[in-house]
UniProtKB/TrEMBL annotation:
<protein>
    <submittedName>
        <fullName>WDR64 protein</fullName>
    </submittedName>
</protein>
<keyword id="KW-0677">Repeat</keyword>
<dbReference type="InterPro" id="IPR036322">
    <property type="entry name" value="WD40_repeat_dom_sf"/>
</dbReference>
<dbReference type="InterPro" id="IPR015943">
    <property type="entry name" value="WD40/YVTN_repeat-like_dom_sf"/>
</dbReference>
<dbReference type="InterPro" id="IPR051242">
    <property type="entry name" value="WD-EF-hand_domain"/>
</dbReference>
Length: 341
């Protein structure tokens, strides 16, 4: 927080300096009365380096100063002093580095592949409070990338399956499990388990093809998590799981499998048909305390309502878009929802 305050103060001083140079440049054109406080390039260079330190490079300071002098009516944007340009790239800097003003350290690249050939990533979920990222591939590789000791390491879990593809994933913050959905099953992976075997659970069968999944993030209960899912028939499902479910409802693992199976019929899983086509994406927006789902359906394209609507028949808040909605996101700062069709 202190570094952020210091940077804002330095940026304010820098912008005042730029305004003064612009004024002096216009004075030299006879637009204003001159005074003795002239600012040449050497003074600008020294002041800028004093404000920002090694985060600024000589060539960027020089280019910035040249722009001000040559066209004072069109002053450059302040990110340009750090080599960040709108619509162009700084070819003099290394492509693998980011400036210290914006990031704490150099970007780190994961060099090893976590999926095999002809496989694709179907879901990426960031878990900020645990400093890791979860990915799920179409053919069944679940991977956790964790940042510890300033380096990334990953550990993967392969879901052996016949024809079903993974269609989405998320993280269960209270139970500390990775959840993923396939066309016919729900996968729950205990990524913390040191055992290579028997560290996963599968809930099946699911009658319709599951296409998306999201966790309901609410404060409070530490022993359960609620999962939202959407399928190819327009249904949205609500599944609540506790630690007891992993003990009470599991059956023996099948041969040549590292999973324990749970019968979907043993769970109370409310569902409601909200769309007339595929549920493409579903998400719980904690800031609004509402869930949102979208579909390629032109009539019920986007739904935003309380999760209790999944357990009753009351009308839901929805709107229609020609040819449906494929994606959406919520911006808390602007208090808007943006959809893409």
């Amino acid at each position: 927080a202190l570094e952020l305050i210091d940077f804002k103060s330095a940026l304010e001083q820098f912008q005042n300096l730029v305004e003064k140079i612009i004024q002096k440049t216009k004075e030299s054109s006879g637009l204003y009365a001159k005074d003795d406080d002239e600012i040449d390039y050497n003074k600008f260079h020294t002041t800028t380096q004093t404000l920002f330190g090694p985060a600024v490079k000589d060539q960027n300071i020089q280019a910035f100063f040249r722009k001000i002098i040559s066209n004072p009516d069109e002053k450059p944007e302040w990110p340009e002093i750090f080599g960040c340009f709108l619509g162009e790239r700084d070819v003099t800097s290394s492509p693998s580095r980011e400036n210290m003003v914006f990031l704490d350290s150099e970007k780190q690249q994961i060099t090893h592949s976590v999926v095999k050939r002809k496989d694709v990533i179907k879901g990426i979920v960031k878990v900020p409070f645990l400093h890791f990222t979860v990915t799920a591939s179409q053919r069944g590789v679940l991977t956790v990338f964790s940042k510890q000791r300033k380096s990334f390491f990953s550990y993967s879990f392969y879901f052996h399956q016949d024809t079903a593809w993974i269609t989405g994933c998320d993280f269960l913050p209270n139970l500390k499990y990775i959840v993923a959905v396939t066309e016919s099953t729900i996968i729950l992976w205990d990524y913390k388990s040191k055992e290579r075997e028997n560290n996963g659970f599968v809930i099946k069968p699911m009658k319709n093809c599951l296409l998306c999944v999201s966790t309901v993030t609410t404060s409070g209960h530490l022993a359960k998590d609620t999962i939202l899912m959407g399928d190819d028939k327009g249904y949205v499902y609500l599944l609540t799981m506790t630690n007891d479910d992993f003990i009470m409802k599991q059956s023996k693992a099948e041969k040549e499998s590292q999973f324990k199976f749970m019968d979907s019929e043993s769970f109370d899983m409310p569902k409601r048909k909200l769309h007339d086509d595929w549920v493409v994406k579903i998400k719980y927006i904690s800031a609004l305390k509402r869930f949102a789902s979208c579909s390629t359906d032109s009539t019920s394209s986007f739904v935003l309502d309380d999760i209790n609507r999944l357990e009753d028949n009351l009308p839901v808040k929805e709107f229609s878009v020609p040819k449906g909605v494929n994606a959406f996101t919520y911006c808390g700062k602007a208090k808007v929802i943006v959809t893409g069709g």
